[in-house]
DNA sequence: TTGTACGCGTTATCAC
DNA sequence: GTGATAACGCGTACAA
């Protein structure tokens, strides 16, 4: 509400001086006395620099957009928390958008052309291809979360291989040898990396991965039923399932019950990512917790770098290792 | 990227004319020919009016902030969808904030003083009192969602009484007479209204509500366990529970199992609000679905009214009645 | 019918 | 040390 000119008038000085004092301009060493008067008036009037005026002046908004497919998803909620916290620390405001509504390139470039945001944090949908992603972001300053485009720097991801490896090893340690993987869509980079981790763990245990034990139908709850149907109807079905996403894992639990498999007695299930809901399934779901909060922090830092000109390097968040949350959905065969 | 002056130069006209043509100024009836040229150039260059420049000019941002306690909550996610859809329709941009980070009045008035937003949509936390709410919002243009302050117009809510009545009646119809209520905190207006609806239904069936059957510990999952402990340890415990929130209902299911009560055989449970997670509990949770999406739409409309000067009237969203989602957590006693 | 000039609030570049 | 002034992009009252 209060403007520089208001303070200037009351202090009997010029707007320029007020601006310089308030911004600690080193070139200006104002009289301690006037300086004091200006500061006091500013705080009394509750002066706040006008956002639009600054944005106009600097051609920079200090606002970034975070685009995620679905706010409901606990996965994204924790990511969002990390993004918000780090943004506040760095002086950014976050504009939150679902990719549903920011689905086409127009929306993105519009936000940019209108000068509403400086850049984007984009967590694509599972079924997003490199092409659709490239088309979507155009030449906008974007940091990709959990995906990557060739020759385009600036992306951050979690250690999907470690996640899947950790989950698989946990099952191996409990005597399971026939382990299935309920994976995300093959278009998804994270799904491919999780599959690598799963196979790595299997091979390290002297087991050769079988195509009959892997489905790639998606991360959503709804994709769980057909996946379980398929994998459990193979010859020699698995005794345990690594589910690449905690939401899909809930669906697996429900559908397994529907088919008459008792978890964990007949079938063990472990999910990647943790969520509060995993405490309230039956049986409670064992999961591998991943550092999504830290991922959000890294993403903001990477975008800041990108906006500052320095090319952000790709980054896999490894500062916090995958963490096993043992509940009751995995049985020991030994 | 492209400015009015760019178009003006290429079209060989003045910026003023370009502006008027692009804004369909009725006072200006430009030559169809120049008009055509301007429009073509604008679309070719992908012209977008600069957000900050407009905001500075009009002292209005067409941006509103939506403040909710927790994005994870499916309740708020659906509300958010409604808010976003209606905002886009009305030309608003939505700034999403958790109330965690917007906890004190400074944050709110700061957003306002900086001219970042025109107004707020505020869904307070369950434990927010009228005092803390009043302090929080100050004189800011706010529409309250699911709460109210005396003598302060502008709030929207769902029909909490109808919700609780519907849930209670459903249990009554199935022969239950001893029905408990696991309610939100007594500070919460919605909790008080739900309690009214619950009692109404009971009394209409000739049953007088008993204090021994009501807890008021909160809407969160974590509040469920102590609530169930208490209500089930009374003399003559209930055969069915109305849980005032779907998340708390998940906690009720889990804790009931922990205590050895089989749902629905020993104890029936019905939750208010629906969420996808209710499909994946055991047993699947019967709920009363409330029109949260429509609530979001109404909230935006109310804020628009408030910002336009016309005092928004209080509004209870009744366009969509409570909808029973029958799953398997309620048994019939008859 | 169209061009010119001013102001929105801020900062930076000059003079004094 | 401090004050005047131009500029950021837009819309509009006024002049032509």
Q: Helix count of chain A?
A: 12
Spans where pLDDT lies below 50 across 5 or more residues of chain A: none
- Mind telling me the CATH class of the largest domain in chain A? Alpha Beta
The name of the CATH topology of the largest domain in chain A is Rossmann fold
Largest sheet of chain A: 6 strands, parallel
* CATH homologous superfamily grouping of the largest domain in chain A: Response regulator
Within the largest sheet of chain A, what's the order of strands? 2-1-3-4-5-11
Q: Give the total of domains of chain A.
A: 3
Q: Can you tell me the overall shape of chain A?
A: elongated
| Rg over alpha carbons of chain A | 26 Å
Please write the string of helix (H) and strand (E) elements of chain A: HHHHEHEHEHEEHEHEHEHEEHEE
Q: How much β-strand is present in the residues of chain A?
A: 15-25%
The structure class of chain A reads alpha/beta
**Gap between N and C termini of chain A:** 71 Å
Number of strands of chain A: 12
Query: Main interface pair?
Result: A-B, 46 and 47 residues
Oligomer: homodimer
Tell me what the CATH architecture of the largest domain in chain A is.
3-Layer(aba) Sandwich
Helix content bin of chain A = 40-55%
């Amino acid at each position: 509400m209060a403007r520089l000119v208001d303070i200037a008038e009351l202090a009997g000085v010029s707007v320029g001086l007020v601006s310089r004092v308030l911004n600690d301009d080193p070139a200006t060493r104002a009289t301690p006395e006037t300086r004091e008067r200006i500061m006091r008036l500013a705080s009394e009037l509750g002066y706040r620099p006008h956002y639009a005026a600054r944005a106009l002046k600097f051609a920079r908004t200090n606002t970034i957009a975070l685009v995620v497919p679905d706010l409901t998803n606990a996965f994204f909620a924790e990511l969002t928390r990390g993004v918000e916290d780090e943004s506040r620390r760095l002086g950014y405001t976050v504009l939150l958008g679902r990719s549903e509504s920011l689905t086409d390139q127009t929306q993105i470039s519009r936000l940019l052309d209108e000068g509403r945001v400086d850049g984007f944090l984009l967590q694509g949908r599972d079924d997003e291809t490199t092409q659709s992603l490239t088309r979507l972001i155009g030449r906008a300053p974007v940091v990709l979360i959990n995906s990557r485009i060739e020759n385009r720097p600036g992306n951050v991801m979690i250690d999907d291989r470690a996640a899947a490896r950790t989950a698989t090893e946990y099952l191996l340690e409990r005597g399971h040898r026939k382990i299935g993987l309920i994976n995300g869509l093959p278009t998804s980079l994270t799904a491919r990396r999780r599959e690598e981790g799963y196979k790595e763990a299997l091979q390290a245990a002297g087991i050769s991965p079988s195509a009959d034990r892997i489905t790639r139908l998606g991360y959503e709850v709804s994709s769980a039923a057909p996946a379980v149907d398929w994998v459990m109807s193979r010859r020699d079905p698995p005794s345990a399932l690594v589910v690449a996403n905690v939401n899909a894992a809930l669906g697996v639990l429900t559908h397994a019950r529907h088919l008459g498999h008792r978890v964990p007695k007949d079938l063990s299930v472990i999910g990647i990512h943790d969520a509060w809901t995993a405490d309230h399934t039956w049986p409670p779901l064992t999961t591998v917790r991943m550092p999504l909060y830290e991922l959000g922090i890294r993403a903001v830092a990477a975008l800041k770098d990108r906006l500052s000109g320095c090319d952000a390097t790709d980054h896999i968040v490894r500062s916090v290792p995958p963490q096993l949350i043992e509940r009751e959905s995995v049985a020991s065969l030994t």
